[in-house]
Amino acid sequence: MALFNKEFWTDLYQKNQIGWDIGSPSIPLKDYIDQLKDKNLSILIPGAGNAYEAEYLFNKGFKHVVAIDISLEPLINIQNRIPNFPKENLIYGNFFEHHQQYDLILEQTFFCALSPFLRENYVNHMHQLLKPKGKLIGVVFTSPLNSDIPPFAATKEEYVNLFKSKFYFNVFENCYNSIKPRQGRELFMILEKI
After folding, report:
1. pLDDT tens digits, residue range 36-94?
2. How far is CA 161 from CA 125, 132, 151, 157, 166, in A?
3. DSSP letter (8 states) at residue 11
4. Residue 22 carries which DSSP code?
């Protein structure tokens, strides 16, 4: 299976073939963000794309939000859309080569964008990037999607097997507030670093 590199993703952005982009923050993540009180939390959004969650956090006064993407196109979109967003917090690069540490990492369509053979690396690197008791919060797909190109889904059992050695499962359940096209196909997770 091929790696889906920056050229692959940049081409999709340039052709506006970004079906995963809902044009606003994911409702489950927005609802989670709404209950956060500490505006000093360090938060990473990997595979951020157009990063509507980063924009939402920034507009709510969160001071340490970092978005990373392997394609420059969406990072330019973010700069154009949110001119005051700190440029140093928009990282053009490979998630697996990023080494800061965070209180929270927000997962939104990043897991499903990676080739399935990178899943164990994903879990290990998420664990490394989180501070002690750090949390991985997100929405992941469960329904079968594709076998040759993104998006790739996993079953609930596959997710549990992947994450159980590195994370406590605080919440891992069917997503009740998915957008209509994704209803019944998503799990919401709050995983805490072991």
Report:
1. 999 999 999 998 888 899 999 999 999 999 999 988 888 998 899 999 999 999 999 99
2. 16, 21, 20, 6, 10
3. H
4. -
Are the C-beta atoms of 85 and 58 separated by less than 8 Å? Answer: yes
**Residue 157 buriedness (CB in 10 A; 0-12 / 13-18 / 19+):** exposed
Q: How does strand 186-193 pair with strand 102-108? A: unpaired
Q: What is the DSSP letter of 112?
A: G
Q: Where are the alpha helices (DSSP H) in 43-188?
A: 52-59, 72-81, 119-129, 156-163
In this structure, what is the dihedral angle of CA atoms 99, 90, 53, 168, given to the nearest 10 degrees?
Answer: 0
Model's pTM, two decimal places?
0.86
Which CATH superfamily groups domain 6-16+28-193? Vaccinia Virus protein VP39 (3.40.50.150)
Asked whether the beta carbons of 109 and 181 are under 8 A apart, the reply is no
Q: In the structure encoding, which two tokens stand for residue 118, read together?
A: 């990178």
HEC string of 60-125?
Answer: CCCCEEEEEECCHHHHHHHHHHCCCCCHHHEEECCHHHCCCCEEEEEEECCHHHCCHHHHHHHHHH
